[in-house]
Amino acid sequence: MNKKRRQHSILELVAAQPVASQEELRQLLEDRGFAVTQSTLSRDLRELGLARIPTPQGARYASPEALGEDHRTALEDILPQFFASADGVGELLVLKTIPGGAQPIAEAIDAQAYPDVLGTIAGENTILVICRSAPARDRLERRLERLARTES
Known about the structure:
The protein has 152 residues and is α+β, with helices and mostly antiparallel strands.
C-alpha cells in the first residue's frame, strides 16, 4: 500500500462527499482497497491538514483551504458546538472539546489574532493556548467561556 496513493484517495473522498467521522472515512478507504488503522488514518488527516468543521448538516472533514475565506466559521459560531471546559495556570490555558473539536477551535482562536494569545497547539480534543501573562489568560478564559455559553 502506497502512502501517497492512500492520502490522494483521502483527499478525493473528502472533496467528493461529506465524511463525518474517521470510521466512515476508514470504511470508504477500505472500499477502495486500503486497509488502514485508526492511528494511521489520524496521522494521514493531520499530515493533510484536514479537520472536522461544522456545517449545517453536521461536522465534516475538510481542508481549510478548500473552504475559502468566505466560508470559515467564526469562533462565536463553533465554540458553543465544540467547547467542553477550560482550565489554566500561569500563562497556559487548556481547553477541552468534544472529539474532533480542537482543530477548528484552535484555528478560529488563531484567526481572531487576540493580542493576549501567543499561539495555540491542538490535538483531537485538547487545545493548549499560550498567553502573554496570567492576567491575559484570565481575560481569555472568561471571554471564551462567555462565547461558549452563547447560542448561535
